[in-house]
Write a structure and sequence with these properties.
The complex is a heterodimer of chains A (about 425) and B (about 525). Chain A is about 25% helix and about 25% strand. Chain A is α/β, with parallel strands linked by helices. Chain B has about 525 residues and is mainly alpha-helical. Among the domains of chain B are: about 15-75 and about 110-200, no CATH class; about 440-535, Alpha-Beta Plaits, CATH 3.30.70. The longest helix of chain B is centred in the middle third of the chain and has 32 residues, at about 290-320. Chain B is globular, with a radius of gyration of 25 Å. Chain B starts with 19 loop residues before the first helix and ends with a helix. The chains are: A alpha/beta (about 425), B mainly alpha (about 525). The interface between A and B is large, with 73 and 70 residues.
Chain lengths: ~425, ~525
């Protein structure tokens, strides 16, 4: 029996713990300074919006951990001594490990904006961020959210639920257009404005201005406009939360450098989830992937490696999903904002302007490459199979109704989409 | 991480606040309710029909204006903001107060109808009298407390059904389903039975709502009800035969193809009220494993209770009225024993693998006890197949389950335990349909591969207290006896993970683990590992 210490109780660390328990009788300790119990970070917004209580974001009952002999420790790991295989805790103690799994997730990006650390300025990542926003938005009339990605739109939706007026500063020409092609990006942009949000495109943050008490009272945009506000949300992405590993001897890049077996340069030290950085990107994936399901997969993989035999992390076909206010988004395979040289994009938009689909396929071989879908649900299993079997775009068109995952009685659009696709030019 | 700052604000959440239009709508609706209160305290209205009309209309119009203002100014989508902040919907003072009032209302209606003004031997007074003109119009008699209750019940389903449709107007499934429960309540449960009663004025009372089948309608086979049906001419005979066909043919077939939802969330009146008036409380159901354990015992014991009570009642009816029966009591005793054996036996034979050990033992033990007791008493020549006098049994059932559980707790506790307390813990109909849904049905909720982010919206929204997320995050389909197929888990899912489907029986529960995102070879490895584990 070995002692396995997991730093971080997010989806990656907790999945690792659960699977190590399934596969072995190792002693497992999970250390986190954020919360006592695992919760779903993606659901924090719903707590603020009053859809759920915080305890509802916890997928396992509190007795689960004891029942499964997974020790939880609320503490902050201040440093790691890889030579003596111990970790040092903020509370003063040390713990010895046989194997160490680093799963410390991310922290919100700040880009050196003047005033970025003032009271009234926050990111949206942790339970502490949620508490902070709760405490600081009670008398808030206007909030400014900086950074147009998935977290930004979540924060906007949260504030909207409390009738707080919001200004959304987005540096790009169109919402999230580094990832979304023009059609989708504009569709979401329209939807954002439909909710009465003051969306300012091609606008960045210059500085955050303090009032006489040293609290944020306004922001100045890079176009020189001053916007009064009581709360500033900084949601310009996240980066690995690994400051405590400096001087540990563990190789760091932007994240903790790992190979395909999720091993660091130090024996018996592994990194998984948001904080892990692959030496070389896997396929089209980024070396650091701050995605829920990759954390889960890495957790499963590392458990196999530690308990059974080394398994390469092999995340399969890319997929993801999100929700922009009322519009759901799913993607399977690769869809880039700009078509690559060999790619053809076909875009269909419903007359309502609230649903759309984009298919990407190889211009020469007609092999299906990827799909973006907004306002319509599609079956993961279908596209995973299509991608594995390298089926053509024509196969996808022919079987589109098998791909549909919308609830019963929902309007079907397969015929319209097919007709539009095969329409003679 | 941000530093913690103590919150000194005493401001309310914005979601507690109401627009002036909503306040006006509340005033209209409450005025309508107030007229009923005035009638209750014996204010004499000169024109009862007019005032009752004004009262009902005001409540409906108030609800419509309120719902319009609440939902139509925002784009269609999920509208759950603040449900865990508002006093009414988070077990706050308002929730408790409404719960107490509703509970007391039920106590009075079941056991003290005279307080509402119902008098069997003289003219009605108070609230009941206010409904006399409407009752006379529909069924030709003066009102009873059940007519008043039925009317208010129907009005609640219609008005709050409208609100529900606006709330979920982005979901065609929800719209169609809600129109269905509104229709079945208005036509089948309310208008048609009342009108049939008017057309057959001389006949004794029997149930004329064809969707109200045994065992939800537990007195279907009690002697007075059987006699009324048998003496009720073609209509009575139709109701008896249709009722039996519902139990043995229509319901099993529909449940096989569509799951129990065809009844529980599309047709049933209890379900209708839960889905419309109860929608604001759906998230209050207990999701803990303990609650699930309690639920399995509670609902199945009620089922056993109703089966025992019904068998006893029919047996004594056949003993006492051999001339009115087409089967003899001997045939019935053997038939009941054979049916019980067949049901328990076939579950055991075909589906043992999908039951856990506890369920297997309980089922086997119960089956043996039920059949043996029945046969023993029969051969002893006892008049009571289950020891206790059948009239005592059924009156206990009527009191404990028929009234206290389904009415008082079932609706009175909406604001405390969610909208499906009765359906989840007590309804024997739901228990039968649930057994079938779990074991012999094409229905399931499909999980969409690896898209689940464990957010918990689905579990939170489940009125039946199913921890939907526990399945979805494993990539597993949801096949649960209690699921009524309301489809709200699917509606609130932000990632498009859940879909109600009727599909092949093979791999109904199958795990989509391969799509949790792992490479296929890893899954194969996991499976190999499982196999070796099993061998060792």
């Amino acid at each position: 029996m070995q002692h396995i210490i997991i730093i971080g109780n997010g989806i990656a660390g907790i999945t690792a713990a659960r699977h190590i328990r399934k596969l072995s009788d190792h002693q497992i300790t999970v250390i986190s300074a954020e919360t006592d119990y695992f919760f779903s970070r993606t659901a924090l917004m719903y707590v603020y919006m009053g859809h759920m209580k915080f305890e509802h974001t916890q997928p396992y009952e509190n007795t689960f951990w004891k029942d499964n002999k997974i020790d939880l420790q609320n503490d902050f790991v201040s440093s790691v001594d890889t030579i003596h295989k111990t970790i040092h805790l903020k509370s003063g103690g040390t713990r010895a490990y046989d194997k160490l799994i680093i799963a410390t997730g991310s922290k919100s990006n700040k880009f050196g904006w003047p005033g970025q650390d003032l009271p009234g300025v926050t990111g949206l990542y942790s339970k502490q961020d949620l508490d902070y926003i709760e405490q600081n938005s009670a008398n808030c009339k206007r909030a400014v959210v900086v950074g147009g990605g998935l977290i930004g739109i979540e924060l906007i939706e949260m504030l909207l639920s409390r009738n707080i007026a919001t200004t959304f500063l987005v540096r790009e020409k169109s919402f999230w257009d580094a990832v979304l092609p023009k059609g989708e990006s504009e569709l979401i942009g329209r939807h954002i404005r439909e909710h009465g949000i003051d969306l300012k495109l091609e606008t960045g943050l210059q500085e955050i201005v303090a009032d006489q008490n040293g609290r944020a009272k306004a922001i100045v945009t890079d176009k020189g406009e001053t916007i009064d506000c009581e709360l500033v949300g900084l949601t310009a992405g996240v980066s690995p939360n690994i400051d405590f590993l400096k001087n540990s001897g563990i190789e760091l890049g932007r994240g903790v450098k790992v190979n395909r077996y999720l091993q660091t340069n130090i024996e018996d030290v592994y990194a998984i989830g948001d904080c892990a950085e692959q030496h070389e990107a896997i396929g089209n994936r980024r070396p650091i992937e701050a995605v829920w399901y990759t954390g889960r997969m890495m957790g499963e993989t590392i458990a196999q490696t530690i308990c059974v035999s080394p398994v390469r992390y092999n995340p399969g076909h890319w997929f993801n999903s999100a929700k922009f206010l009322d519009i759901e988004y799913q993607t399977y395979g690769w869809v880039f904002a700009q078509p690559k040289a060999n790619e053809t994009h076909f875009y269909w938009e419903h007359p309502s302007g609230k649903k759309c689909v984009r298919f990407v396929y190889d211009t020469n071989t007609r092999a299906f490459i990827g799909i973006n879908v907004f306002g319509i649900r599609m079956r993961h299993q279908f596209f995973d199979k299509v991608l594995t079997e390298k089926q053509s775009i024509d196969y996808v068109m022919e079987h589109l109704s098998a791909a549909n995952f919308d609830p019963e009685f929902f309007a079907k659009h397969e015929t319209d989409i097919k007709n539009a696709f095969y329409q003679p030019l | 991480m941000s530093p913690n700052i103590i919150n000194l604000s005493v401001a309310q959440h914005a979601s507690e606040q109401q627009s002036s239009k909503q306040k006006m709508a509340l005033a209209i609706g409450l005025s309508g309710l107030f007229i009923l209160v005035l009638a209750l305290v014996n204010v004499q209205f000169s024109n009862k029909a007019l005032w009752l009309g004004i009262s009902l209309l005001a409540m409906v119009v108030g609800t419509i204006i309120y719902a319009n203002d609440l939902y139509l100014h925002h784009p269609a989508g999920i509208k759950n903001n603040g449900i865990w902040f508002k006093s009414l919907t988070s077990k706050g003072t308002l929730g408790w107060s409404i719960s107490i009032l509703l509970t007391l209302f039920y106590v009075v209606i079941y056991w003290y109808p005279q307080y509402l003004g119902f008098h069997a031997d003289k003219e009605n007074t108070g609230l009941i009298a206010l409904f006399d003109p409407l009752s006379a119009l529909l069924n030709g008699h003066t009102a009873t407390q059940w007519f008043v209750y039925g009317t208010l019940y129907t009005v609640a389903i219609l008005a709050l059904g409208y609100k529900f449709i606006l709330k979920y107007r982005h979901s065609k499934y929800q719209i169609v389903r809600t129109i269905s429960v509104m229709f079945f309540q208005l036509a089948f449960a309310f208008l048609i039975p009342e009108i049939l009663a008017k057309l057959n004025p001389e006949k004794a009372y029997f149930v004329k709502d064809i969707k109200n089948m045994w065992p939800l309608n537990y007195y279907m086979f009690e002697d007075w009800h059987l006699k009324s049906m048998l003496a009720g001419g073609d209509l009575g005979l139709f109701m008896l035969l249709f009722g039996i066909a519902m139990i043995f043919v229509i319901s099993p077939v529909l449940t096989y193809f569509y799951g129990k939802r065809w009844y529980c969330s599309w047709v049933c009146g209890c379900g209708g009220l839960a889905e419309t008036a109860g929608d604001s409380f759906r998230h209050l159901s207990d999701k803990s494993i303990k609650a699930w354990e309690f639920e399995r015992w509670s609902i199945h014991l009620v089922l056993v209770f109703v089966v025992v009570s019904t068998i006893s009642v029919i047996y004594s009816f056949l003993s006492n009225n051999p001339d009115q029966s087409i089967i003899s009591r001997d045939q019935f005793a053997y038939g009941a024993a054979a049916l019980l054996t067949a049901v328990v036996g076939s579950i055991f034979y075909f589906k043992r693998a999908s039951l856990n050990k506890d369920a297997q033992y309980t089922l086997a033990a119960l089956g043996v006890i039920l059949v043996c007791t029945l046969l023993l008493n029969y051969f002893w020549g006892s008049a009571n197949l289950y020891f206790i006098d059948s009239y005592t049994l059924r009156s206990w059932y009527g009191f404990a389950v028929g009234a206290a559980f389904s009415g008082v707790i079932g609706v009175g506790f909406y604001p405390l335990m969610g909208s499906r307390v009765w359906c989840r813990f007590g309804c024997p109909m739901a228990a039968i349909l649930g057994l079938q849904q779990r074991l012999f049905s094409k229905f399931r909720i499909t999980t969409n591969g690896g898209q689940c982010i464990s957010c918990g919206n689905c579990s939170n929204a489940c009125e039946m207290g199913i921890d939907v997320r526990a399945y979805a995050q494993k990539g597993e389909n949801i096949v649960r006896a209690s699921c009524v197929g309301c489809g709200i888990c699917s509606a609130v899912c932000p990632r498009g993970v859940l879909k109600l489907e009727n599909g092949a029986l093979e791999n109904r529960i199958n795990s989509n683990a391969g799509l949790l995102g792992n490479d296929v070879s890893l899954v194969a490895m996991l499976e190999n590992h499982k196999k070796t584990e099993r061998k060792s």
